[in-house]
Amino acid sequence: MSEKKIQPFHLAFPVSDLEQTLHFYRDILGCETGRSSDKWIDFNFWGHQVVAHLSPEEAGKSSTNEVDGHEVPAKHFGLILEWDEWEELAERLESENVDFVIEPYVRFKGKPGEQATMFFLDPSGNALEFKAFRNKEQIFAK
């Protein structure tokens, strides 16, 4: 397969409270804001456009699947960061007393695809996963 240029993605998701969402994504995660209204807010999510839409009846709904002994939210989004960025984010989230669905840990230690991962919820109950790989060339390793 030829190498493709990585393009920014766009993701829209439901939230129950725009002020709490603004605080979480801007002040805790460090995302800049873009356009907004009284019904939605655009965030610069590490170069990607994510949009929080006010929809309390839809926010935070997800089932889980068992993965490595953890109940992983089936519906989640996030990023793959550099290892040091991932560690810094984990420390920042801990200092902000963010509750983790899955505490920061390393999967597949010493094996292909070794990765650090953590899961947490935004104020509306939407699950986010942030990862880092020891070797990014092994992101899709089997």
TrEMBL record:
SUPFAM superfamilies: Glyoxalase/Bleomycin resistance protein/Dihydroxybiphenyl dioxygenase (SSF54593). InterPro entries: Glyas_Bleomycin-R_OHBP_Dase (IPR029068), Glyas_Fos-R_dOase_dom (IPR004360), VOC_core (IPR037523). Signal peptide: none annotated. Gene3D superfamilies: 2,3-Dihydroxybiphenyl 1,2-Dioxygenase, domain 1 (3.10.180.10). Coiled coil: none annotated. Residues 7-133 form the VOC domain. It comes from the Bacteria. This is VOC family protein.
